[in-house]
Design brief:
The complex is a heterodimer of chains A (109) and B (229). Chain A has helices at 4-28, 36-42, 45-59, 72-87, 90-108. With 109 residues, chain A is mainly alpha-helical. In chain B, helix 1 packs across helix 9. The termini of chain B are far apart. The model of chain B has no long low-confidence stretch (mean pLDDT 92). Chains A and B meet through helix 1, helix 2, helix 3, helix 4 and helix 5 of A and helix 2, helix 3, helix 4, helix 5 and helix 6 of B.
Chain lengths: 109, 229
């Protein structure tokens, strides 16, 4: 359970912070040119943080497929990464990932 | 008589429709995760309306279910949302001479999708006024699709049993959001580094390992992309 006060504290702080980021240049009409170098550094953010969120979530998950030491979610995530890379479709990747998980659990149980 | 709808508002709305297949599943996952975390309908909708930044919301809800400290939840969300700084800088000249409320509204609704659609159609819009109309048409499309898919996901998530493992959609979504940003081998190296370090640093309390990992991985990106003198 997520406590109500805790939820709102987080969401309101995030809302204020995110709005400040979004409004930064727009509200001040700052004619700041972001250098190519900074643009490049910013472009690394998704690659730096999204795997850090996703990978431990599956790596430390204790699953049910003994043949894969209970790490079926981890293995499927690796396959799903390949599927996402080639298909570029989120719906397809989600369907692939979830149905592979059901299939593996069904087959090995 | 109905007021005339600006032509470019409709244009912006229609131009955004082709990218909605990417928005619908992500919003549906968002709604499912909210239901899974036992957030109330009001909390879920309110968060989606006021914060309006999917990836950071997904991360925040995940970290909140693990009772991470407020500092970690907020810092993680803000790192994810730092990319809006670039969009804000890029959009700033368009609204430079607009009224304050137009500026603030356009800032509030900045998303990856609006920005991408705007860039793709820039050369078909003659002036800033047309661009602003187009932008809000795009915003309208994304908002309607995002909120309605989120609500559908929430309702679905409320009756889906735990055995359906819908929580697995969260890491899958994060990975699918990341893939298009990997422009070359350097980005792949950063993503792999981030995966390994995040696993190693997981035992650090309060989920602080997440922030340390992100900072280290960004540092690696800076290092790898340094120009040879």
């Amino acid at each position: 359970m997520i406590a109500n006060g805790y939820f709102w504290t987080n969401i309101i702080l995030l809302t204020i912070g995110t709005f400040i980021i979004r409004a930064s240049f727009i509200a001040t009409s700052a004619k700041v040119q972001i250098s190519e170098r900074h643009r490049e550094i910013f472009s690394f953010i998704p690659a730096a943080i999204l795997p850090a969120l996703a990978v431990p979530l599956v790596f430390y998950h204790q699953g049910q497929v003994q043949a894969l030491l209970g790490k079926e979610r981890f293995f499927i995530l690796i396959l799903a990464t390949v599927v996402a890379f080639y298909s570029k479709k989120m719906t397809f990747t989600l369907i692939f990932g979830l149905s592979s998980l059901y299939l593996l659990i069904k087959v090995f149980q | 008589m109905l007021p005339r709808v600006p032509k470019n508002l409709t244009f912006g709305f229609k131009a955004t429709l082709p990218i909605t297949p990417g928005v619908i599943p992500f919003a549906a996952v968002m709604g499912t995760v909210c239901a899974d975390a036992h957030l109330s309908f009001f909390q879920s909708v309110a968060m989606n309306v006021i914060l309006y930044a999917g990836a950071s919301q997904l991360a925040a809800v995940d970290l909140m279910t693990k009772h991470s400290p407020v500092s970690v939840v907020v810092a993680t969300g803000l790192i994810i949302n730092l990319r809006f700084l670039l969009y804000s800088a890029a959009f700033s000249p368009v609204v430079q001479h607009a009224r304050t409320h137009v500026k603030l509204a356009s800032a509030f609704f900045l998303t990856d999708q609006n920005y991408a659609v705007m860039c793709a159609h820039e050369n078909r819009l003659r002036n800033n006024r047309e661009m602003i109309e187009f932008y809000f048409g795009s915003v309208l499309c994304i908002t309607v699709v995002w909120q309605s898919s989120m609500i559908a996901g929430y309702i679905f998530g409320n009756f889906a049993p735990a055995s359906w493992s819908l929580d697995y959609a969260v890491p899958l979504s994060f990975i699918t959001l990341m893939i298009p940003t990997l422009k070359n081998a350097k980005y792949v190296a950063v993503a792999l580094f981030s995966s390994v370090v995040a696993i190693l640093l997981k035992p650090i309390p309060y989920n602080l390992g997440l922030i340390v990992t992100a900072l280290l991985a960004i540092a690696l990106g800076v290092l790898l992309s340094r120009k040879k003198q």
